[in-house]
Design a protein that fits this description.
By secondary structure, this protein is mostly helical. Helices cover 44% and strands 0% of the residues.
Length: 278
């Protein structure tokens, strides 16, 4: 777009230079010429400018429209400062402990307050971990954040045995990753069947304090992944691979015979429209 604009400006300048040189030549030879048409009334210039405006404007409008709804790097402020780096990174809590349905269901889901309390009924203060800082470098009072959790849970650390889990309130977390309503996405299909790691889509979660949207999650981004990701077929003889794909007998035979060296998600229908839109 920028190169086209520069070329158009150069063309206009050359046309104007050519016109001035011709005028000087005609004047020296005594050739009478009609009065020149002002720039803003010249139909050729007006047409060229309109075409240029249409092309450049269309390019930037299209580029901007493609990005509508994409929330890469989106990082809303959460009701409680929760550090994945501390929980999943330093303390190595498995992702599935809090997001268990990511392996068995369509949604990863956000853990209930009582899941948090499974640990924080006993862990009432933050003592040995690293200093916590927000995105602006301001230090976070971790104990104050734990106190917020207790407020939602209705928990009194001085009297833990009197706590009634049924009265705990949900924490109003702000959702970060969201797809349009016309898109179907199943976590278990990727994590369980496809053996896709959480970090592939969500980035290095174990190193994030405040989580943000790592990937753009656009259609092109998903399609490119389906084109490149190889399927880990089950090998009956070696007993290795993913048994989920054992139904694709033809591909098994093609790999054994040397017709194919690998199979991607694209080859098993990963680019079919109805896989994600139905």
């Amino acid at each position: 777009g920028v190169i086209s604009l520069i070329m158009a400006i150069i063309a206009l300048i050359l046309m104007q230079v050519n016109s001035n040189l011709k005028k000087l030549s005609d004047d020296s030879e005594g050739i009478l010429r009609p009065e020149p048409v002002p720039f803003f009334k010249n139909k050729v210039y007006i047409a060229m400018f309109s075409i240029l405006l249409f092309v450049v404007g269309g390019y930037y409008v299209g580029k901007g429209a493609i990005g509508l709804g994409r929330l890469k790097n989106y990082q809303p402020k959460q009701p409680i400062y929760y550090s994945h780096k501390v929980h999943a990174g330093i303390n190595q809590i498995n992702c599935l402990y809090c997001h268990g349905s990511a392996f068995e269901g369509k949604q990863a889901n956000i853990p209930s307050t009582n899941i948090c309390m499974n640990c924080h009924k006993a862990i009432t203060s933050y003592e040995k971990g690293p200093k916590l800082l927000d995105e602006n470098g301001v230090e976070i009072n971790a104990n104050a954040e734990i106190a917020k959790l207790y407020q939602y849970a209705g928990f009194d650390p001085k009297s833990p045995n009197s706590w009634d889990p049924s009265k705990a309130q949900s924490i109003p977390w702000e959702r970060i990753h969201s797809l349009p309503d016309h898109v179907y996405f199943n976590h278990s299909q990727h994590t369980k069947a496809g053996n896709v790691q959480c970090q592939t889509c969500h980035g290095e979660i174990t190193a994030m304090n405040e989580v943000y949207q790592f990937s753009e999650l656009s259609m092109g981004w998903c399609v490119n992944c389906h084109r490149d990701t190889k399927v880990n077929f089950y090998d009956k003889e070696k007993g290795t691979g993913n048994k989920f794909y054992s139904i694709y007998e033809k591909f098994h035979n093609d790999i054994k015979s040397g017709k194919m060296d690998s199979v991607t998600v694209k080859d098993i229908g990963g680019l079919e429209c109805q896989k994600c839109h139905y």
